[in-house]
Design the sequence.
């Protein structure tokens, strides 16, 4: 989504500086090249080494750092490469300097040198935000004369002082979404409802053990975030994962296949697009032979025999619904052998519009190598790439179908 974009993140001395770490992580996941510029006082709150590890680039606090020796005039050469500057958090002090063209440290000097879109995310105490001088500085930056400056927030919420009032920095997800829009990211799913399943399901054998798989849910969550960022109204139905639920999506957590089946059917009518990334357990214990026991099965020297039966086929059930023709239906095929052959068979058997074929190497990985096959038989083999980037390629194909 932001592949090939260079973004400078300015971090000033607000307690919200810790949230800037998440901004860097989100931008990196979207493929951006991120450089962090900090005020010296901001380093008292978050260390430069933290941002160095997250961004993969030197962190600029002083324009005369030896690490920047490869850049002839750092604040000029790097600023010329920047597609956007974002200052988050932006204190009243930094806002005042920017409004009056003062460049007395690395951050404000970079801000003067960047000739492109700029975004400020203010963060300060409510009384400071209401101060007439701060208000004048904000108005000045918003004026046509300073037309390249954009401002997001602040929001109302709990402040560091304990008050519930305005002054809280906008959430990292919202800031990153605004960055994407300023850099021309797509909002082509505006008004569309997208239903996504993610993670794996678990079928209990007893209160301790279950039948499951190694799905991390990362691909489904990446698709949910990408669809949301492109304007969609997203419902994410997920089995158990260790992932943070994306903001601004409707989230439904489930445990087993039957629960996911019911949740999908309940949300299906309103969906324009259904993307089934979940690695659903194919079998569960046969309750007529051995149910999910109420007590833990004790280990012994004798063999234990479990009789299994198939779980609900969610994809096939969707394909047989009356309003199937009004939806774009996408499935995933993870195969250990004969990947293309098995994926094509699943595409036909489940009556899909598009199938994403990939191998087991994708399990718990942040990257995926995959192929897209549509109902006409056309196949696109895609190279290994971060899952957020892959999510947008998949959505590009879905949008063409819509």
Sequence:
């Amino acid at each position: 989504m932001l592949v090939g974009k260079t973004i400078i993140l300015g971090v000033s001395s607000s307690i919200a500086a810790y949230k800037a770490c998440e901004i860097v992580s989100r931008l990196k996941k979207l493929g951006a090249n991120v450089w962090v510029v900090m005020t010296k006082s901001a380093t008292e709150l978050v260390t430069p080494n933290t941002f160095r590890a997250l961004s993969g680039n030197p962190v600029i606090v002083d324009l005369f750092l030896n690490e920047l020796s490869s850049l002839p005039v750092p604040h000029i050469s790097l600023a010329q490469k920047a597609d956007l500057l974002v200052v988050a958090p932006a204190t009243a002090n930094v806002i005042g300097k920017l409004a009056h063209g003062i460049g007395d440290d690395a951050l404000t000097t970079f801000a003067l040198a960047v000739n492109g879109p700029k975004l400020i995310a203010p963060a300060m105490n409510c009384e400071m935000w209401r101060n007439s001088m701060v208000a004048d500085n904000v108005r000045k930056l918003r004026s046509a004369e300073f037309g390249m400056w954009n401002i997001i927030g602040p929001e109302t919420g709990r402040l560091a002082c304990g008050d519930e009032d305005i002054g809280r920095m906008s959430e990292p997800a919202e800031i990153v979404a605004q960055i994407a829009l300023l850099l021309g990211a797509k909002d082509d799913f505006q008004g569309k409802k997208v239903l996504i399943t993610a993670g794996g399901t678990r079928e209990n054998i007893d209160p301790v053990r279950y039948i499951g798989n190694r799905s991390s849910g990362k691909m489904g969550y990446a698709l949910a975030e990408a669809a949301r960022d492109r304007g969609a109204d997203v419902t994410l139905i997920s089995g158990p994962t260790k992932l943070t639920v994306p903001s601004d999506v409707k989230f439904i957590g489930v445990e087993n296949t039957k629960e996911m089946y019911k949740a999908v059917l309940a949300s299906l009518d309103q969906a324009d697009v259904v993307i089934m990334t979940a690695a659903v357990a194919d079998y569960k214990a046969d309750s007529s032979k051995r149910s999910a026991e109420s007590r833990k099965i004790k280990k012994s020297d004798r063999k234990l025999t479990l009789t299994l039966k198939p779980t609900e086929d969610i994809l096939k059930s969707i394909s047989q619904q009356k309003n199937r023709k009004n939806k774009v239906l996408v499935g995933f095929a993870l195969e250990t052998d004969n990947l293309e052959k098995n994926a094509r068979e699943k595409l036909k058997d489940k009556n899909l519009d598009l199938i994403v074929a990939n191998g087991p190497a994708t399990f718990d990985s942040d990257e995926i190598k995959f192929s897209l096959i549509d109902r006409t038989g056309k196949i696109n083999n895609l190279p290994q790439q971060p899952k957020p980037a892959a999510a947008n390629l998949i959505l590009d194909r879905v949008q063409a179908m819509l």
Notes: The mean pLDDT is 89. The longest strand covers residues 367-374.
